[in-house]
Amino acid sequence: MLSMTRIGLAPVLGYLIIEEDFNIALGVFALAGLTDLLDGFIARNWASQKSALGSALDPLADKILISVLYVSLTYADLIPVPLTYMIISRDVMLIAAVFYVRYRTLPTPRTLSKYFNPCYATARLKPTFISKVNTAVQLILVAASLAAPVFNYADSIYLQILWCFTAFTTAASAYSYYHYGRKTVQVIKGK
C-alpha cells in the first residue's frame, strides 16, 4: 500500500510543480519520502509484511516518482534538460537490462504469465555502492530544487554544483552497472 501511495503521489507532485505550487509540492514530496522510509522499515523489521509484489513495486514506485519529479522540475526550469535526460536514460537502460535478465533467467517454457508474475522471482539486482550514492544525490537534488523557489535560492551556485555532482554520480553509476554487469545480478535457483 505504501508503494502504491508513492505511485499515486507522483502525478500529484508533477501537477503541483508544473502549477508552481512549490510550498505544497515540498510537503507532498516529504510525505512520499516518509512512505518510502516507512516501507523499508516495515519490510526490514516485520518479515510477515514482506511480499514479492511489494519488493517489485517499491523500486518501480521510486523510478516513477523520480522520473515524474525530474521531468516536472525541468519543465519548471529548476533542473537542466541534459541532466534530466541523463538520469532518465540511465533508468531506461537499467529497466531494459532488468527485463533482459528476467527473460534469460526464466525457466522454459517462458510464458507471459510467468514473466510478469512478481511472485515468481528468478533474479535479484544488487545495487552497486555508487548507485546507492547516486540515488541519495538525486533525491537531495530534487529536495533542493523543490525548496529553491520557496527559499529563494534558485540561481545559487551551490545548486549548480549539485547539478554537476548529480551528473557525475549518474554517469559513474551507469558505468558501474556496465563494468560489473554480472556481479550485480544474483540468480535465484530452484524456481
Automatic annotation (TrEMBL):
Keyword NADP applies: no
Catalytic activity: a CDP-1,2-diacyl-sn-glycerol + a 1,2-diacyl-sn-glycero-3-phospho-(1'-sn-glycerol) = a cardiolipin + CMP + H(+)
Pfam families: CDP-OH_P_transf
Subcellular location: Membrane
Transmembrane segments: 12-34, 83-101, 133-151, 157-178
Bilayer disposition of the protein: Multi-pass membrane protein
Enzyme Commission number: 2.7.8.41
Keywords: Lipid biosynthesis, Lipid metabolism, Membrane, Phospholipid biosynthesis, Phospholipid metabolism, Transferase, Transmembrane, Transmembrane helix
Protein name: cardiolipin synthase (CMP-forming)
Organism: Equus przewalskii
Gene transcribed to yield this protein: CRLS1
